[in-house]
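User: My collaborator sent over this chain with a note saying "see what the structure looks like." That's all I know about it. Can you take a look?
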Amino acid sequence: MAEDGPQIVVCEGGAGLGKSAVVTDVLVRLAEQGWPTAAVRMDGADASVQTAKDLGTRMTLPDSPAVLLAGVADEAPALLVIDQLDAVSTYNGRMSDAYEAVEDVLAQLVIAPNVKVLLVARTVDIDNDRRLSRLVADPARAVRFPLSVLDLEQVRAVLSANGTDPDSLGLVTLELLRTPLHLSIFSRLSLSARAASYRTLQELYARYTDERREEIERQATALDWRGITGTLCASMSERETLQAPMALLDGFARQHIKVLESHGVLVRDGEQIGFFHDTYFDFLFARSFISAGEDIHDFLANSGQYLFRRAQTRQILEHLAGTDPERFRATVARLLGSDRIRLHLHDVIITVLGQLDAALPDWKAVEPVAWGQAPVAGKVRGLLALPQWFDAADHDQRWERWLSTPQRADAAFPELLAVARHRPERVAELVRPYVGTTPQWGQRLLRLIEWALTPGLIDLAVDLIESGHADEARGPIAVNSDFWSLLYGLAETAPAPAARLVGAYLRRHLARALADGSGDPFESGHLSTHSQVADTVLSRIAEAEPEAYVSQVLPFVIDVATAGSTGRTDAYAPSGRWAHRLVGGHGVDAAMLTALDTALRSLAANSPAAAAGALQQLTPSPVQELRFLTCRVYAVMNQADEAIAWLLSDERNLRLGWLSSARWASRELIEATTPHCSDETLERLTAKLLDFYPAWEHRRQKGQRSAWGWSQYELLSAICPSRRSAAGRRRLDEWERKFPGQIPSPPTPIQTGFVGSPISDHAARHMTNEQWHRALNKYAQPQPERPWPPQGGAHELAQTLSSRAQQEPERFTNFAFTLGPDAPAAYLCAIVEAVTPHLDADRWEQLALHTHRTLGPAAAPTICRALQSAPQNFTAASLPALDSYTTDPHPEQDIRDADAEGTRTDLLTAGMNATRGQAALTVAALLFHGSEHLHALTPLVTRLANDPVLAVRVCAAQAALALMHHDPQIALDTTEQLLNHQDTNVYNATTTQRLLINTLVREPSRFAAHLARALQGPGDTADLTGQSWAVATIQGCLTPDLPNSTHELNALARRGAAAVFANNIDHYPHLVPLFNDNDTDVRKNASQGMRQAFDLLSAQADELVSAFLDSDAFPDHLEHLAFALYDHTGPLPAVAIDACERIVQHAGKDLGDLRTHRAADGHYLVSAVLRLYRQSPRSQRIRCLDIIDRLSQAGAYGLNAALENER
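Assistant: Without extra context I'll predict from the sequence alone. Here is the result:
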């Protein structure tokens, strides 16, 4: 709670993580430091708590806790704790309206930043309540303090501090103790008990109970532990609550109750009492239930099977699994096979089974259910996806039999696919007999390597690829995935197996290309050069496993490069696949060669024998690309004489490199070998180079300097300086004089960057006016191109000038008056736009007039935009300039056709980019600002409203609308002139539609004909006018001769009307018929209104939702209703449960399919149904349970997590 930190801290976490303990500790510590503190729990709030003062009343305070605490603190630090905030969240669903009191408190404390607020809530409530989510989304106001399980080192430290050796407990126990509650229970055990290991919370609770009971009974010998705890458990179970009235224990000695409280077993809250944690209640209930010989099937079947029973069911089954495995197996088999047990409880059973270290008897117990017809059968089979269950069932040829039967193979293969990552070798063994059998098995095997590829499946995958059964293999998730995506993770975790797959893939597609008459699968299209991840995959493999990469890729590169040289008279000519090499070149083929180069050079340094083997494959080839690789390897091989001998074996080896440095590889070889070669070899090399003049250097281009000697200079200068001969040194001196300032340079990668200003911001801050003038004059002229980085000219310099003008407006305003017509307009315009917010009207007028006189029409966009942003600067002296802009020749006509890129510019955008259009918008801004210049501006409005170009007219519509505020009659007359254009596209702009709506409100009979005409317009015109018709309908200004219902409109107009009614949900009766419209887009637009359905009164919401549920729009657009159910912050109306039932009925299994958009609807529905469950009476909860079961059957996203701690 740092005094200088955010005012609000949100302590969050799940059950058992110690939120209450942390908050109590903070409260005590700050109180000890002298902070005034106050605390309130929101789980005690009721419907009467709506304001901060109501919350104070709840705390028995005379006023709001915020007001009182701020007053007591008197600007000193103070703390307000609001605990159990989840009790008033929308996700909890019980008392969400009471959150308004919390918001009121927080609003009051905005002016008292010294009062810190500590909010306490579950993470699930924060994530599912948009009010809480918005609160924590503002880092300046609130900070989240999440609690989570402890890390192992923290657990070890606590144990060691308490005298327990953590190494004696085992990893399973340490993992159990990472939950703070479990560690707390463990810490209360005796020293001998803390030396034992515990696999489960049940074991821990059992030891805790034995010790605590023994201790308590020593203190109170007559205490009836079984009676007290049994009475509480029975009552809580029957009432499905975690507390019981104190009166329930009146039959027991009150002193005994206090003893249990003092030992922390029971916790009292007013007149209610309960156990210290709900998991301990579940434990005691399960133990009592089993010891009494109760039947869990009958107990559940006869108890309503509400969500409260989930935790009890889990505890009973876990207890049975640990104490009586035979009874456990019989019990789960009966429960899973019973149609009297709800599906949400079946999910609990499956969860318990999934935690078992399963054996064959466990699988045998549930096998009949797995292959039966019960709804839970698929989930029971889903256990086979877990390694321990796969092993348990993998006896007596079960998997072999299942896969041999088509129906069972379909049912079992998803589990085989899931477990393949854990048991790849066994899975490969099971499926190998089906390679190449049927199309169905072909698809299954393809899915197997796409979803479950691990090193253990590599042999199978290689066989599938090479035999042509996996030509379409690709990463399974993203739509733009490819084969290389499949290897992305494998290349990092298992690069050698990944290299085998690369080799198989390349060989397969080379074979396909050859079959089609091509030696280059990239050229033939069998391999794509495009991939987002291939470069990463190939480089990872090459760097981690160079030998494997070379063995798999080098033969392919040799074959493709050789094929590319076939038919060429000169095998060295740069026309093959990799002839034009770039450093950092893009494409799969370029990445493949770069990675091969990396791998080969790595072998030369670390595995010379393997590198020598690669050279044996490369050196016989005359192909230029392969010679390049040879040169690169020799440069790092530490065989100087052999390398130079190869270099001198063919003069064309002296020109090996990259596109941007054609001899760099040759130069690198010389540089690397000449310090170590023999004198004789060096003499041969030097003699060769001194006589080396490529033929192209003889041909001098007109206007260019002679390049004679440059190639020799590049190579000769690579010889080790200390070993250069006298003749070599003399020749180098000659070339250095001929090529002054030029040195051989390595190849450069392809680069991208922004064209920046020629003057940096740092330099600009220190420039004088004279320096600015010189710079502006210099860059007003075209500058010679520079290689890198790119440098801009006048436009980019104007941006820097603008930045400085914003920082020093007075200086640069004065500077602007020194700029004349010879300077680019961008300079002066940049200053005007930058300084406008800082100038008064007189000064701005001077600057604007200077700009207008200096630049003429070119100043129009800048001056207009400046006036639009600061209309208060307009003066009568500026009127002539603005008047001239209204008669500017630009634009000459409307642009109706698409441009070269196929883009059509709408009228309003076209007007904004034209001088007269900008003038119209400026007049509008001035009239909206006030009436001071009304007389002078009115003629301009009239002129622009009658402009022949529609793009200008639609901008003038904004000016006419502004005029309506000052002189309605002239504005109406002007509007009629504006709209009286022969082209109905005049209505195709938001500005004209707003103007039309305004005139209809004022004189509906006069302008109704325009609305009727516009409704018959083409395309977007009708759509926009449909929106205006809907607004007129809402305003009540339709005339009898206009359509008075949506069915009288055409489809385009109905689309627009539907969009307006959807955003004005109070007028929902107009929306209802549109749900059944015969136009799909109309139904789509109308359905958007369902997102606000619950903003209506309850009866209205019922009517609207019921109509939607029975409409044609519902099946395709139910997601809007699902979102509304999720998003509503108050109690959900009665119709909400009908909506949930219909959504889950229609969407079905799609709610659990992450490949469809319905999975998000499932998330919304889960939240809504649980809220309904909590706010509903028991009779209504049955319907909620039915929906939850349907969601369970569909596998709805988020259901199991949401139900995890649900009571």
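A starting point for your reply to your collaborator: The radius of gyration is 41 Å.
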